[in-house]
């Protein structure tokens, strides 16, 4: 029997722990409530979420890894755009008049539950960076 080759759609098993640890540090910096954290991760079952949070390790699926990747990109872009970390972290919750947000905050857009909204916010911030 041949070993199954890892494909582009299968995350490396060793990405889970670092991704989850990074996510929970980011969630702390952004002062995200548990419900917001779960929504940003794609609404994993409550027991799974708390296991990840407690152990800071696990084997999240490709979707969760993709979501965390976008969130880390958003975090990094904000740190570049706003040299003051408090200002960078606060930007997420501030109402935004850009057409993309329609007067709502970026966090509200990100909490829609769609991974595409994380992508759109990341793309917006990357464009602002130039």
Explained architecture:
This protein is an all-alpha fold and 130 residues long. It has one domain (13-129). Helices cover 60% and strands 0% of the residues. It has 7 helices and no strands. The chain is globular. The termini are far apart. The relative contact order is 0.13.
What about the largest sheet? Answer: none
- Could you estimate the helical fraction of the residues in percent? 55-70%
Tally of separate helices: 7
Q: Count the E strands.
A: 0
For the termini, the CA-CA separation is 50 Å
Compact overview of the structure:
Helix content is 60%, strand content 0%.
Give the secondary structure arrangement, pairings included.
Blueprint: H1 16-29, H2 34-40, H3 46-55, H4 62-81, H5 85-91, H6 106-110, H7 115-129
Helix pairs in contact: 1-4, 4-5, 4-7
Features:
130 residues, mainly alpha, 7 helices, 0% strand, disordered N terminus, DUF2384 domain-containing protein, Xre-like_HTH, Xre/MbcA/ParS-like_toxin-bd
């Amino acid at each position: 029997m041949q070993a199954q080759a890892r494909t582009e759609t299968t995350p490396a098993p060793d990405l889970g722990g670092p991704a989850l640890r990074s996510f929970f540090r980011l969630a702390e910096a952004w002062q995200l409530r548990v419900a917001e954290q779960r929504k940003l991760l794609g609404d994993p079952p409550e027991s799974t979420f708390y296991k990840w949070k407690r152990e800071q390790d696990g084997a999240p699926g490709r979707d969760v890894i993709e979501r965390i990747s976008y969130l880390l990109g958003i975090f990094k872009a904000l740190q570049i755009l706003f040299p003051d970390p408090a200002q960078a972290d606060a930007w997420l919750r501030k109402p935004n008049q850009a057409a993309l947000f329609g007067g709502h905050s970026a966090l509200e857009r990100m909490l829609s539950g769609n991974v595409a909204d994380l992508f759109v916010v990341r793309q917006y911030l990357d464009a602002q960076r130039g």
